[in-house]
Amino acid sequence: MRILVLGGTVFLGKATAAEAVGRGHDVVCAARGQSGQAPAGATHVVVDRDVDLGPLEGARFDAVVDLATMSVTWVRRALRSVSADHWTFVSSCSVYADHSTPGSTATLAPLEDDHDAPMSPDRYGAIKVASENAVRDARGDDAFIVRAGLITGPGDKSDRFGYWVNRLAKGGRVAVPDAPDQPAQHVDVRDLAAWIVDAAEQRVTGTYDAIGPANPLSLVLGEIAGAVAPQGTQLVRVPDDVLQRHEVTPWAGPRSLPLWLPPSHRALMFRDAGPALAAGLRVRPTADTAVATLEYERGLGVDRPRRAGLPPEVEDALLVAVGGGAV
After folding, report:
1. Average pLDDT over residues 308-325
2. How many Å apart are CA 160 and CA 31, to the nearest integer?
3. Strand pairing partners for 83?
4. pLDDT at 327
5. How far apart are CA 313 and CA 324, in angstroms?
6. E-strand spans in the chain?
7. What is the C-alpha separation between 265 and 250, in angstroms, rounded?
8. Helix/strand/coil (H, E, C) string of 134-163?
9. Cα–Cα distances in Å, from 39 out to 8, 17, 163, 301?
10. What letters, b where the CB count within 10 A reaches 16 and e where it falls short, cover 100-118?
């Protein structure tokens, strides 16, 4: 098959291109090339999607995978500019309007591109809704739309999963949110990439939440610890009021506990993985993702500045606050 990956130089796009190359497909990655390189064996075509698709205008492929992040204009231009027998659009679970109610399927109202408007999670999700609509307008039901949840594994620079792998690998007393039953779910980038290529080969269509099964946060952190933590590591639960008093934020940011969610967003990681699993998504154990993530973390530098997670001095203060101090 001849496959066009609109992106293909970082994280999921690169993993998808690499998976397709590994199966013997002829892969073209279309990107500016400023964020990374196409994987070995793929052809990199330099394009600026703010302008056009350059030499790819009018080209035909067996399959297209579009990873447009925050631009419905990019999506519409691609649909007009190239043709394919199978079309994948990578969307996001951020399209949902209600993250507090499990099973809610209502989506945000679509929004057009506006470079002057500040980006927020809701705006990001609304642009994804508009992009999904553009794909359906052009392709009808003949499209594969994957609403990705938290994507983890090698290549992830968000630090949301990587923080925990790195921190637990250091051992000692580890501050964790006192929310053991909060749902948590993720999908390894390699598993999602494999499913996207499977779908192109098998002409799978439909809209799916592309995510692994939800498990209690305590189980997810326990699986990571079991894979990478030295003997004697202790997970210390820190109550919400202590976290708030120390200005620790949920989910992401420079003073955060990743994967921890406020009650208003607990359903964000409680999407139904059943349809995706029934349609062929295969997910590996969290422990396997943790081991591969730790290798990637060490390559980046485990003590680098992070986008998410607790600075050591903040964690030490939390551990003192709940008793016993840090080890």
Report:
1. 91
2. 26
3. 60
4. 44
5. 15
6. 2-6, 26-31, 43-46, 60-66, 83-92, 144-148, 151-152, 173-177, 183-184, 187-188, 206-210, 215-216, 234-238, 249-250, 256-257
7. 10
8. HHHHHHCCCCEEEEECCEECCCCCCCCCHH
9. 8, 7, 26, 22
10. eeeeeeebbebbeeeeeee
Whether 175 contacts 319, CB under 8 Å: yes
Residue 166 host element (H or E)? helix 162-170
Q: How many CB atoms lie within 10 A of CB 287?
A: 15
CA distance 42 to 4: 10
How distant is the alpha carbon of residue 236 from its chain centre? 27
pLDDT digits (tens, 9 = 90+) for 213-245: 999 999 999 999 999 999 999 999 999 999 999
> 10 Å Cβ neighbour count for 295?
10
pLDDT at position 324 is 62
User: Could you tell me the domains of the chain?
Assistant: 2-148 (3.40.50.720), 162-185+215-269+286-322 (no CATH)
Q: Per-residue pLDDT averaged across 106-134, rounded? A: 94
Token representation of residue 161:
């999963």
Pairing of strands 187-188, 151-152: parallel
Average pLDDT on 258-263 reads 94
Q: Which of 102, 82, 59 is nearest to 270 (CA)?
A: 102
Q: Is the pTM for the entire model greater than 0.90?
A: yes
The b-or-e profile of 159-196 (16+ CB within 10 A means b, else e) is bbbbbbbbbbbebbbbbbbbbeebbbbbbbbbbbbbbb
Cβ atoms within 10 A of the Cβ of 237, count?
13
The token duo for 216 is 């209690």
CB 183 within 8 A of CB 217: yes
Examine the pLDDT at 136 and tell me if it is beyond 50: yes
Bridge partner list, 60: 83
Res 87 pLDDT > 70 = yes
